[in-house]
TrEMBL record, chain A:
A UniProt-annotated Pfam family: ABC_tran
ABC transporter domain segment(s): 13-265
Alphabetized UniProt keyword annotations: ATP-binding, Nucleotide-binding, Transport
Domain of life: Bacteria
Protein name as catalogued: ABC transporter ATP-binding protein
InterPro entries: AAA+_ATPase, ABC_transporter-like_ATP-bd, ABC_transporter-like_CS, ABC_transporter_ATP-bind, P-loop_NTPase
Record-linked CDD domains: ABC_NrtD_SsuB_transporters (cd03293)
SUPFAM superfamilies: P-loop containing nucleoside triphosphate hydrolases
Record SMART domains: AAA (SM00382)
GO molecular function: ATP binding; ATP hydrolysis activity
Automatic annotation (TrEMBL), chain B:
Sequence similarity: Belongs to the binding-protein-dependent transport system permease family.
Cross-referenced InterPro entries: MetI-like, MetI-like_sf
Organism field: Actinomadura syzygii
Annotated TM spans: 58-81, 117-136, 148-168, 174-195, 239-263, 275-294
Stored PANTHER family: ALKANE SULFONATE ABC TRANSPORTER-RELATED, MEMBRANE SUBUNIT (PTHR30151), TRANSPORT SYSTEM INTEGRAL MEMBRANE PROTEIN (PTHR30151:SF40)
Region (Disordered): 1-24
Gene Ontology annotations of biological process type: transmembrane transport
Identification of the protein by name: ABC transporter permease
UniProt keyword Transit peptide present: no
GO cellular component, one term: plasma membrane
Amino acid sequence: MTADVQVSAEPAVRLSEVSKAFGTGRSALLALDRVSLDVAPGEFVCLVGASGCGKSTLLNLVAGLDRPSGGTIQQHAAGKDGKDGQGSRVALMFQEPALFPWLTVTGNLELALKMRGVPRAERRERAGALLDTVHLRAFAKKRPHQLSGGMRQRIALARALALTEQEHASGTVDAQEEAAARSTVLLMDEPFGALDAMTRDLLHDEIERIWRERRLTVLFVTHNVREAVRLGDRVVLLSSRPGRVVEEFPVPLERPRRIDAPEVAALAGTITDRLREEVGRHGA
Amino acid sequence: MAHDTTTRDKRRDDAPDRTGGAAAETAAGRLDREIAGLDALELGGGTRVRLLQRTWSALWPILTAVLIAIAAWQAVVWSGWKEPWVLPGPRDTFPVFWDQITSSRFWNSVALTMQRAVIGFVFAVVVGLVIGALVSQFRVLRRAFGSLITGLQTMPSIAWFPLAILLFKLSESAILFVVILGAAPSIANGLIAGVDYTPPILLRAGKVMGLRGIGLYRHLIMPASLPSFVAGLKQGWAFAWRSLMAGELLVVIGDTTSLGVLLSQARELNNTADMISYMLVILIIGIVIDRLFGLADASIRRRWGVAEN
């Protein structure tokens, strides 16, 4: 499955020697130390690391919520004519659904579409289509608190997908739009961390399906090594304080994978050993 | 019911050769069904209590409390602590109360008092909104005026009256001035607290969506601060009502009759039953309006799922 990733194409995201320090002078804390990483269009990359590896900081930087102290982040954000600026095709999803409680499910999605410049007339329909994608059409008029944690997280996913959408989506996806869709990056910050195991398993299948259908580029942060191997084309291991890329592990396993498959467990074991080695350095 | 369905699905997965249909089922279809099953399980079934039952369970503690209060009042009268003409019992007071609330003079007084209350409160809301918006927006103003606003909130409004009378003489303006000063700090504080406690995670989500400037206020900060703002309104109303009563007792304008004027006239005539009747009316109006704010507050909280229960 990894063979069809277009490694030859320009990367959807390229991080070159990215550093991030918080504070100044002697008390400054270096969160990220010269992290370089390319994510190919359509690739599913998982970042794993122990606490303090700057995973969330990294996603904030890519999402444009924060500026790096050093290095550059390039995004191949191909709009229709390349006009769209950097960061305009990024969607970020958190561990919490972070839905607006005063809006209905549809209202939440429509607001995201509005912010993407989708005309009012199209919003209702497009929101409905997104709800179909996450199988929650029947709950369009509910408010977030009326849904379960897993359902809320799927709405949050639908909202993130809304942010990756084109202004004028039509039923048919032509080549140009497809190229643009491939360069939209979905950033996920431990999105399933707060869910129970059963729900998480189902959502793994769900996110894999949506990733494939929509040809998304995904940068997925998790502390769960098995989850990373279950989902990723590639697993990138980060060290802690400061965050550095320790090693990258390609995942040459056939999809769909099961999280309890022996091959997944074996690779996860290798990565976990390497991770423990890293964590051990801090105890010495 | 839903639970049965999922268990059955699981069994079908384990033994795909049991029926031909299950074996032919696509992986995608199965995933859809499993997710739908889990959704059904997680939502569960809520129980709805009937309206009548809900009303009664809200009402009976209040009725009991009223009965206990009346009983205590009667007990004090029976103890012979004061002469009956100084402290009449409920049996002497309620007929007077009834006479009062069926007289037009009384309703004219209530109308004047309520008019003052509403005008004062509306002004207080405007002043509170402007101050709250400015202070929550600019950090310098916050540092300069934040504690001053809280200080004003705790200041007894009656202390403003000497100044108000000097500034405005015995006029409507004097009363209005004190009502606004009493209510505006609470309203401003409610707004400031609401803006301050907009959940950071929602702010992050808003930024990812590209909300900034006016849009950020319109779509995120204003709705997020609404519950706290309504709580501020409720408290502001309580302060406005107290200030107004103090004002009507102190600032008597010409031959106007308001609840405060009726109250002080009853005292001058040693007419305790009338006086208690007016006090009851003042209490009831305060409670009713407070309940209205409470209902608005509760309905927002319920809709947003932030109710305590």
